[in-house]
Amino acid sequence: MPKLTKYQRRITWSTGIGFILERMDAMFMSLALASIIITLHISKAQGGLLPAITVIGSIFGGIGFGALADRYGRVKTLCWTIIIYAIGTAGMGLTNSFWMLCLFRIIIGVGNSGEYGIAITMLSEAFSRKYLGRLSAAAGVCGQVGSIVASLLSAFILQRFGWHVLFFIGIIPVVLAWFIRFHLPESKEFTENRDAIEKDPNRDFSHWTELFATPAECFLTIRIMIMFMIHIAGYNGLISWLPSIAQERMHISVAGSSLWMIATIIGMSLGIMCFGIVQDHLGSRLAYGIWLLAAAASVFLLIIAQNKLEFLIGGGIVGFCSDGMYSGYGTIVSKLYPTEIRATANNTIMSIAKSVGSFSTVLIGFLMDHFSLMAVILFLSGIYLVSFVIMLSIKELKHENKAPITTTENAEKVAQ
């Protein structure tokens, strides 16, 4: 990769910090939940509503901010979203009302919803396509760093100062991200496209419905959305439930289950980096084919493991295979959709997929209550195989490094 320009460095730092913020928020909420339930004297069902209700803000924010980013600019929109996110995070640290917490979680969902899609779009417009897989992977690893940092901060702060202080600490990287993005210019690709639209009376800014405007576009959008939905379902299932499985099946302590989590996150980080390299050199079809089949097979290691060491190693391998594909979705969306609708496509697909996929924790909980661990493993393995079949049906991936296929003429060519 050639030496980065000043603009490319700022884009890279901006994206990395944004991904750190995204994962830190999810981990803060997860790790602080037990303390919030005790402090506010609410039920576990009410407590479970707090992370779930974020979905409401994520859906509307994701679709809305994607469209705004395509119309008014990626940088300007991200500056708006990060201010909204800061307001929600500060509110979490100030209130002791359950209903106000719900409101602030929705606000955080709105503010956080634009981060992944718009940031990946900015990367795709600042760098050559042949490096996009590795750059997206590096941003994805930053997200895992955010998970580790959030875990360490929570372990230190929660018992000593309480969950209010934890959320106030979460504002610090928000301020840093805003300063990095402030005065950051828009990409040349975006500004040229915007100017062309404004000068041409026959053209108008895109709307999210254009993702479904033709049968080819609709079919492509839905398939990518389902693939990412499956990825989120698998990720949430592993992160949410396998620490509990480790404690029950291997009689691992809470501290030991935290070690398992760190091993899994390290595996995920290595998987993301390796996936990005393979995606750039061998293409998305082969990269996804390898990782999806490996993910479907690797989850059985959690059943095969006979001792704590094997379970620890198995967790790292499962993390490597199951989450390695995370950054690749933004890469293929950025390659397959044209500039005028790229941020809308990224945000709409990612926000809806994340929102629906997050409910996998409920389904896995049901399987654990009524069936065996094997049922959970079969479910996880099965959905990865479904994603593999869907991926094979996306013929557009054969042309991912050429012109975006979602212009009408290209869509018709690929559909033939």
From TrEMBL:
The chain crosses the membrane at residues 26-43, 49-68, 135-157, 163-184, 220-239, 259-278, 285-305, 311-329, 373-394. One of its GO terms (molecular function) is carboxylic acid transmembrane transporter activity. Residues 11-399 form the Major facilitator superfamily (MFS) profile domain. Its main location: membrane. It holds the Pfam family MFS_1. It is found in: Cell membrane. Keywords: Membrane, Transmembrane, Transmembrane helix, Transport. It is a multi-pass membrane protein. GO terms for cellular component: plasma membrane. It comes from the Bacteria. This is MFS transporter. It comes from Fructilactobacillus fructivorans. The lineage of its organism: Bacteria, Bacillati, Bacillota, Bacilli, Lactobacillales.
